[in-house]
Write a structure and sequence with these properties.
single chain, about 140 residues, alpha+beta
């Protein structure tokens, strides 16, 4: 899971599979903190079932977020610990963190679409439609 910031104050949030294919995408303002947008991103899933694990960067190391995901969705959150909080994960789970490159590759693939990079759409609904269309083109290309 990861964000990318685009022009005009928008942020694309996406969840990618191990093969870097998009499982869920959403677009929101660039001002909210990323962990607050996780549930909205899960709601924008392309599939009926949700992933068993989410791998995020240090920004996602939040105990309330981890409890919400585990309790409400049954999803295990894997994120490296920040500097000072208590250690909530052991090193074995963090070995899966090296797979974070999958979402970075998805964002690199989305960069192929000039309409997403320059953001020609003024309305956020149209921009979200273009992001989803780009995700569908990626899925059709690699399936």
């Amino acid at each position: 899971m990861g964000p990318t910031k685009r022009g005009k104050g928008t942020k694309i949030m996406a969840i990618a599979a191990v093969t870097s294919l998009p499982l869920a995408v959403t677009v929101d303002s660039a001002s909210p903190h990323e962990p607050k947008l996780v549930e909205e991103t899960l709601a924008g899933s392309f599939l009926d079932e949700l992933p068993a694990r989410l791998i995020g960067d240090r920004a996602y190391d939040s105990d309330p977020l981890e409890r919400r995901l585990e309790h409400d969705y049954g999803i295990e959150l894997i994120a490296p610990n920040r500097e000072n909080p208590s250690q909530t994960q052991d090193g074995r789970k963090l070995r899966q963190y090296k797979r974070r490159w999958c979402v970075e590759r998805l964002f690199a693939w989305l960069q192929w679409f000039r309409r997403l990079v320059t953001r020609y759409e003024y309305h956020i609904e149209n921009f979200l439609g273009m992001v989803r269309l780009g995700g569908m083109r990626i899925m059709l290309r690699y399936l």
